[in-house]
Amino acid sequence: MKTRDKILKASLALFNEKGERNVTTNHIAAHLGISPGNLYYHFRNKEDIVHAIFGEYVRHLETAFTPKENGPTLDVLMSYLDGVFYTMWEFRFFYASLPDILARNPALHQEYFLVQTQLADRVVAILHTLKAEGILAIDEADLPDLAHTVKIMVTFWISYQTTQAVDAAITRPVIYQGVLKVLFLIRPYLAPDARDTIARLEDHYRRLALRTR
């Protein structure tokens, strides 16, 4: 693995473990056993590292949230929900400190805005596909509002959880609880024939949310 990639991998792990504000470039260099100068050869500062990690986040969104036309309904829904889980878990530091990170980096904030606009369109397209497949029974005009509500829940679930207890830990079960909230949001719009499918998905993610590790 190239040094640049090692820096990004280590930074993401440290940001997720300790919180992005609590990690410096010196911490990252020490963790990797390299000199700060070696790190600065690849990145000018920590903001550059965060920006590069954001690029990985965007690439994941582009592959995970493309509407799928084929496949069993249960598998398709699970792939979307697993995509939600992976994104929230893998980039949890970003969700936990989103307003602060964006406020410090106007260029990143602008990129984030553009990405989220594109993501909103993709979520609407996914919901439209679920409607066409007979899973959702919802007026076409209401799809953007439902998509927006789902995006709000996913974006701020982690930061909300950090306010619920002193030294709150963001664990995998906590993220799966967020996935369950997504299912809860779409439940009122389910077509009758899809309710058993969603119930099976809820049971699946509820078991994952109850795990202690």
UniProtKB/TrEMBL annotation:
Key words of the record: DNA-binding
Entry GO MF terms: DNA binding
DNA-binding region: 24-43
Leader sequence residues: none
Membrane-spanning residues: none
Cited InterPro entries: Homeodomain-like_sf (IPR009057), HTH-type_Tx_Regulator (IPR050624), HTH_TetR (IPR001647), TetR (IPR025722)
Start and end residues of each HTH tetR-type domain: 1-61
Superkingdom field: Bacteria
PANTHER family with a match to the protein in the record: ACREF/ENVCD OPERON REPRESSOR-RELATED, TRANSCRIPTIONAL REGULATORY PROTEIN
The protein, known as: TetR family transcriptional regulator
Organism in which the protein naturally occurs: Gallaecimonas pentaromativorans
